[in-house]
Design goal:
single chain, 280 residues, alpha+beta, GMP Synthetase, Chain A, domain 3, Ribosomal Protein S8, Chain: A, domain 1, 10 strands, rod-shaped
C-alpha cells in the first residue's frame, strides 16, 4: 500500500518540504519523491511562471487484520467508548488484540467478562472468515485477562485444598472454555486432586474431586477414630478390672459406614471483584 502527498513551492526543495509535511509519515519511513512539475520563472519578472510540484510517497505493509480492528472499534463505539486504541500481535496460531482507552473499562468487560468474551467470539468469526486457516483470537482490555487468570488460579487452589481436606467434591460456576482450561491446569499442579467438566454449552462447569484411592486429610475423622480407641481402651480396662470376662472379645455391632463425599457449589462471591489497572 502506498501513501502519498503533493507539495508545491517556488523551488523543488521547497515543494519537497511541503510534501513531506503534508504526508505526515513516521520517522522511520523511507520517503521517496517524484517531481511532477518544474518551477518556471515569470517572464520579465512580471508575467506567467509556475510553482514546482512534487509528490512524496512511501510504502506501508497491508494490515491483514484491519477489518477486524475496524469491527472491534465499531462495537466499542456502540458501547460508548470512542477513544480506544487497538494494538494487534499475531503468529501462526493466534491473534491477540490489546485495547486501551481513557473511558471506564466496565462496559467493555461486562459481568465476569461476558461482554468481552462476546466481542472476542464475534471477532474470531470475522478473522477466520477473511483469513486462510483457523486462528485463535484473544482480546484483552487493560490488564483484565491477567487479573482474571490470577483470580481463577486462586479459586482453583482454594477449592482444591477444601477437597483435599474434607473429601467433598466442589462444583464451580459455569465458565467459558478459556477459564475452565485455567482451572484444570491449576488443579493438575496440586497433588491428590483432579478435575473434570460437566454440563453443556453455557452451563458447562468444572468439578474438583479427590483422585481415586486418595483419602481426605481432615483431622476430624482421625479424632473420631482416636476417640473410639480411647473408648476401647477404657472398655478393656473395665473388663480387666471385672475379672477379664470380656477381655479380648470383639463387638458384634457393625461398624458405622463412612460418610460419602458431598458436593459443594462455589458461589459467585468466590470470584470477587476485579479492578483493572489502566496504567499497567
Amino acid at each position: 500500500m502506498i501513501k502519498d502527498a503533493i507539495g508545491t513551492g517556488a523551488s523543488i526543495v521547497e515543494a519537497q518540504t511541503n510534501a513531506v509535511r503534508a504526508l505526515q509519515a513516521p520517522e522511520d519511513a523511507e520517503i521517496r519523491f517524484e517531481v511532477l512539475e518544474q518551477p518556471k520563472a515569470k517572464l520579465l519578472g512580471l508575467f506567467g511562471g509556475s510553482l514546482a510540484k512534487v509528490r512524496a510517497f512511501y510504502e506501508i505493509e497491508d494490515d491483514p487484520f484491519a477489518p477486524a480492528k475496524a469491527y472491534i472499534d465499531t462495537i466499542l463505539k456502540s458501547l460508548g467508548v470512542s477513544d480506544a486504541q487497538i494494538a494487534v500481535e499475531a503468529d501462526e496460531e493466534e491473534v491477540r488484540f490489546a485495547i486501551t482507552c481513557e473511558d471506564d473499562y466496565g462496559s467493555v468487560i461486562g459481568r465476569r467478562g461476558e461482554t468481552l468474551d462476546a466481542i472476542q467470539y464475534l471477532t474470531r468469526l470475522v478473522i477466520n472468515r477473511t483469513n486462510e486457516g483457523y486462528k485463535r483470537v484473544s482480546i484483552n482490555v487493560g490488564n483484565y485477562r491477567e487479573k482474571r487468570e490470577n483470580t481463577l488460579r486462586a479459586l482453583a487452589r482454594k477449592n482444591a485444598a477444601k477437597v483435599r481436606k474434607y473429601g467433598r467434591n466442589v462444583v464451580l460456576e459455569p465458565m467459558n472454555p478459556y477459564e475452565r482450561r485455567i482451572i484444570h491446569t491449576t488443579v493438575q499442579e496440586i497433588e491428590g486432586v483432579t478435575s473434570h467438566s460437566v454440563g453443556s454449552d453455557g452451563e458447562r462447569k468444572v468439578v474438583i474431586t479427590l483422585e481415586e484411592g486418595v483419602k481426605p486429610t481432615n483431622g476430624g475423622y482421625n479424632r473420631g477414630g482416636r476417640g473410639g480407641n480411647r473408648g476401647g481402651r477404657g472398655g478393656n480396662r473395665g473388663g480387666n478390672r471385672g475379672g477379664g470376662r470380656y477381655q479380648g472379645e470383639r463387638s458384634k455391632e457393625p461398624a458405622a459406614p463412612s460418610r460419602a463425599p458431598r458436593s459443594d457449589s462455589a458461589g459467585a462471591s468466590l470470584y470477587g471483584k476485579i479492578e483493572v489497572n489502566k496504567g499497567e
